[in-house]
Amino acid sequence: MHLTTRQELLAHGHTDGAIRRLVDLGSILRVGRGRYALSFPDDPRQFHLAMAQFEDEGVLTLETAALVHGLPVARVPAAVQLVLDGQRNQLRGRWRQIRGEVLPEQDVVDVSGYTVTSVARTIVDLARLRGAEDAIITWEAALWRARESARLGELRQAVAEVLGRCRRRKGVVVARELARFASSFSESPQESRSRLALSKVALPDPVQQFIVLDFNGRTIGRADFAWPELGVLGEYDGQDKYDSLARPGESPAEVVRREKRRQEQLESMGWVVVRWGIEELRSPSQLRQRVDRALDTGRRRGLGGSLPGRLPTLDNLD
To answer: How many domains, in total, are found in the chain?
Structure first.
């Protein structure tokens, strides 16, 4: 996306009237006072990050900071999120939202030229100010990445320090609870949402990324969730998951067929496989009923503990 200012447009021979006509025609988009976008990427994340490039004061925070750090968010806001030292009142505009706060220097970092809150401060603030439902996605993605890069302990320590500094701030109780709950084994936003939803409907806690073996000890694959003591595997089922599973040159239909064959293999071994999608995540009672039926089937079969598989380790999911 190419961004420009009123001064640059005037310097290229446009008048204020001509700029207004271009905006009315939709040829350019006004994205702030004296700020314009000349092209618009389809990806809202890229649009948002381009907007953030305009900011030359304050610290990028919340969803904006998460996107700069390369982390997923529950939803991409239209407005760039900023913290400004000395700002007494919150300012909520279409393209900028500013809150006043003095940030400790250890909570502010530079990432690719952006001044942003640290990863630890970002996920704590999301939990405090957006709530667990939104923050869980970003928080667990940060933990997954930290575990993959052998920096999980470092991130957890940084979070504990941020929570200490925020101990009297709004929403810190939610952030503390999420710090205890969040897992480093959620591979996708929907797995994070699933963990949170499962925890709210009084079901037994599942194992994540359970490694399923055949009877010769060879790895078949990983299950998003498992209740190995009952012989039950759980999978989030959605188009976004099939997109991520696609191999180079593989069509969506081929991915579905491959997953169907995998499920048939697991069921032939005695596993009970339960799947759920976005509809169940939106309806906790439906999710509970679906998973409860599978757990009851597993109990009746009595194969729990005899089916081959193993738990993942912090440094090995294979």
So the answer is: 3
In this prediction, residue 51 has a pLDDT band, given cuts at 50, 70 and 90, of: confident
Range of the domain at 61: 42-184
Q: 87, 111 in Cβ contact below 8 A?
A: no
What one-character-per-residue DSSP string does 10-60 give?
HHTT--HHHHHHHHHHTSSEEEETTEEESS--SSHHHHHHHHHTT--SSEE
∠ CA 246-248-249, rounded to 5°: 95
Q: How far apart are CA 154 and CA 68, in angstroms?
A: 20
**pLDDT at residue 185 greater than cutoff 60:** yes
* Encoded tokens for 27: 């040829």
Q: Is residue 315 part of a domain?
A: no
Closest CA to 182 of 195, 198, 168: 195
What one-letter code names the amino acid at 286?
Q
Q: Which of 113-127, 252-266, 302-316 holds the top average pLDDT?
A: 113-127
224 DSSP 8-state letter: E
* Beta-strand relationship, 96-100 and 80-84: parallel
d(CA 135, CA 44): 19
266: phi then psi, degrees, rounded to nearest 5:
-65, -45
pLDDT-above-90 percentage for the chain: 61
Q: Rounded mean pLDDT of 117-141?
A: 97
Amino acid at the residue 143: L
Total length of the chain: 318
Gap between the Cα atoms of 114 and 104, Å rounded: 17
pTM metric for this prediction: 0.85
The residue to which tokens 């907007």 are assigned = 51
**Final residue in a domain of this structure, among 134, 162, 184:** 184
Rg (CA), the chain: 24
Q: At what angle do helices 152-165 and 119-130 cross, to 10 degrees?
A: 50
Question: Is 78 found in the same domain as 1?
Answer: no
User: CA-CA distance, 54 to 74, in Å (whole number)?
Assistant: 23
